[in-house]
Specification:
- Keywords: Membrane, Transmembrane, Transmembrane helix.
- Helix content is 71%, strand content 0%.
- The radius of gyration is 26 Å and the shape is elongated.
- The chain has helices at 8-59, 64-68, 79-103, 109-123, 129-135, 141-148.
């Protein structure tokens, strides 16, 4: 049996390569985390902009749904009914963003469970169902899948 002598330089080179490999793995993980944070920030910015936009409609005594989804400038809704419907839309924007944040791992399970209770409550407010019906096609597929698991207390059979 022959003993192979490995020089000190070879050991140093091996340790250096292991260090470089570890550094590359760390950089890759940091890039992935940065991408997730960027996606979350982008989602948050969109939601904030849309919530603000609906708020402007409310301040102007306009109904967001009538104008954007129904292309109707004439509505029979009172100011308070339009404001309530606008608030429902704002809530859907908020909850969809919350779902995205949770899906990216940026929200605790405890906070998400509280949000999920709010989603269940809004989904099962029968007077808010019309806003859900016009908005559901704009939700992400994964958010729609989540919503499809909620027992529907508004169905009439």
């Amino acid at each position: 049996m022959n003993k192979v002598k490995v020089s000190f330089d070879t050991w140093i080179q091996l340790l250096g390569m292991i260090g470089v490999l570890g550094g590359l793995i760390f950089v890759g993980l940091e890039m992935r985390q940065s991408q997730m944070i960027a996606l979350a920030a982008q989602s948050q910015a969109r939601a904030s902009m849309l919530i603000e936009r609906v708020g402007v409609y409310t301040e102007a005594n306009l109904d967001f749904q009538s104008l954007l989804f129904e292309s109707s400038y004439d509505t029979d809704l009172s100011r308070s009914e339009a404001a309530q419907r606008n608030t429902f839309h704002q809530s859907w924007f908020l909850f969809e963003n919350d779902f995205e944040q949770y899906s990216l791992g940026l929200m605790s399970a405890e906070t998400w469970n509280a949000k999920l209770n709010g989603i269940n409550r809004l989904f099962n407010r029968c007077e808010a169902r019309e806003t859900y019906d016009v908005r559901v096609s704009t939700f992400s597929e994964s958010f729609r899948r989540l919503l499809s698991t909620i027992p529907d207390e508004c169905k009439t059979e």
